[in-house]
Amino acid sequence: MAQQERAIRTRRVILEAAAAVFDERGYEASTISEILERAGVTKGAFYFHFPSKGDLALGVLGEAVTTEGILPQEIKLQEMLDTMLLMAYRLPREPMLSAALRLAVDRNSRHMFGTRWPDWTVLLASLLAEAKARGEAHPYIEEMGIARLLVAAWTGVRVVSEGLPEEYDLPTEVAALLQLLLPSIAVPTVLTRLEISAGRAARLFAMMREGEPEGAGLAERVR
Amino acid sequence: MAQQERAIRTRRVILEAAAAVFDERGYEASTISEILERAGVTKGAFYFHFPSKGDLALGVLGEAVTTEGILPQEIKLQEMLDTMLLMAYRLPREPMLSAALRLAVDRNSRHMFGTRWPDWTVLLASLLAEAKARGEAHPYIEEMGIARLLVAAWTGVRVVSEGLPEEYDLPTEVAALLQLLLPSIAVPTVLTRLEISAGRAARLFAMMREGEPEGAGLAERVR
């Protein structure tokens, strides 16, 4: 393994360990020594990549916005939905994503490191703008405002469903939320062609994990 | 002042002080001594009402679900909207409400004290059920599921808009969210008669503070 490749791998191992600990305990209660132990790397390597606990938090937040696994769709609104559905599937399963949300929701760590909510908002708004330009979305919608509400509502569904006594499946809850919201966003002829379901989230995830190359043919297979 | 009345007042003063400190620092970082100092009551009175910090948290959470200021409306869905709009107006202004949300959002304090989200869900679901029985809401909606999503989305709007670099007005954001959601809940003939705006939230608050008695005449004045 080339030296650079090994460094990238070590960095990733440390970051995964940090995410797991942040996700379990929150930023404040997490200690470098626990992260170091869980990562199983040398102190030298550790501090080379992340000189402080704050650098670990920033590293985790750096991984929180992704369109990995999102395939180009004929309908741009479907791409936007896919982004939110796939994230709903992944977040409860991936401490990296779950920890980033926890860091953002906690007011103390948020004051120190900020959040990725503005980036998520811009990402969804750009898909909404494209959808509007193509006539898929109602012409009067204000992309940034709608995108901000989508990010907020998605986040709330995660926070609240995690906090309720019964267990709720995040993709199912997010799909129900999006089903409620989309009639106010998509024009009727597009609305009927959208797929908004937890099943789609699971399929998107399975395809991403298969690691197949992206392409138009694959976009079809998601259905 | 009668002894009982004084006790009630003292309890309230302590609880307000606790809410202010919890709201600023979070549960973990709050100390009894700071709350005691801010309340300005004797140690004896303090520990009589609240033997521990946990009792203070439970006391704050006890105040978090309220329909104070909500007037009976001809359209039940309007009552549901009023409940959510008025809360959006009050929460950023009242540490008691804001602190309760913070305690619920924080995973550590939530594990200790639970949340009021189930109570909010039941409250909104009962209004939705009434709306459905009257034909105001679509007959196929599942009240508990929709109510849970409303609570979650409302909460997310608070958490995210508080965390964004720009300032957002909570009643304005919540009104925009409800405007997006209501077409999937209300039948069209009712939808056009609903008032969903930040201005209504402010008016509901002003009327509540005037302390006027509730009644049908007042319900009209809200418009």
Automatic annotation (TrEMBL), chains A, B:
SUPFAM superfamilies reported in the protein's UniProt record: Homeodomain-like (SSF46689), Tetracyclin repressor-like, C-terminal domain (SSF48498)
Matching InterPro entries: ArpA-like, DNA-bd_HTH_TetR-type_CS, Homeodomain-like_sf, HTH-type_TetR-like_transc_reg, HTH_TetR, Tet_transcr_reg_TetR-rel_C_sf
Transmembrane portions of the chain: none
Domain HTH tetR-type, residue spans: 8-68
Coiled-coil features, chain-numbered ranges: none
Alphabetically ordered keywords of this record: DNA-binding, Transcription, Transcription regulation
The entry's DNA-binding region: 31-50
Cited Pfam families: TetR_N (PF00440)
Transcription found in the keyword field: yes
Designated name of the protein: ScbR family autoregulator-binding transcription factor
Organism: Streptomyces thermolineatus
Taxonomic path: Bacteria, Bacillati, Actinomycetota, Actinomycetes, Kitasatosporales
